[in-house]
Design goal:
By secondary structure, this protein is an all-beta fold. The protein contains no helices and 11 strands. Helix content is about 0%, strand content about 55%.
């Protein structure tokens, strides 16, 4: 099993920054790939960024150049640094884990999910 706990959400004005953290525990083979997803009210879940244990990274076009995903293996933690935030980035952000790197921005590839952390960006 894998357990994921997100933190770092909050409210910020447009142009501001936030850093989300995802603390992971459990079978490391089941969390080879770690992803960040978001879901805004009335919308589907969107893949934002993903990182594999070997350092491979993928970003959604909507966040390229603004968001950075990283991992600290010693702390079993994945981070999402979000800069130049926009009101359209407002959503619940979820951390997810998968045992392989395949379509890393597609939510049905992931087996384990955190409870989410809310990000609200005001204009």
């Amino acid at each position: 099993q894998v357990h994921l706990v997100e933190s770092g959400g909050g409210s910020v004005q447009g142009g501001g920054s936030l850093r989300l953290s995802c603390a992971a525990s459990g079978d490391p083979y089941r969390r080879y790939c770690m992803g960040w997803f978001r879901q805004a009210p009335g919308k589907g879940r969107e893949g934002v960024a993903a990182i594999a244990r070997d350092g491979t990274i993928s970003y959604a076009d909507s966040v390229k150049g603004r968001f950075t995903i990283s991992q600290d293996d010693a702390k079993n933690t994945v981070y999402l640094q979000m800069n130049s935030l926009r009101p359209e980035d407002t959503a619940m952000y979820y951390c997810a884990a998968a045992g392989r790197w395949f379509r890393p921005l597609t939510d049905n590839q992931y087996n384990y999910w955190g409870q989410g952390t809310q990000v609200t960006v005001s204009s």
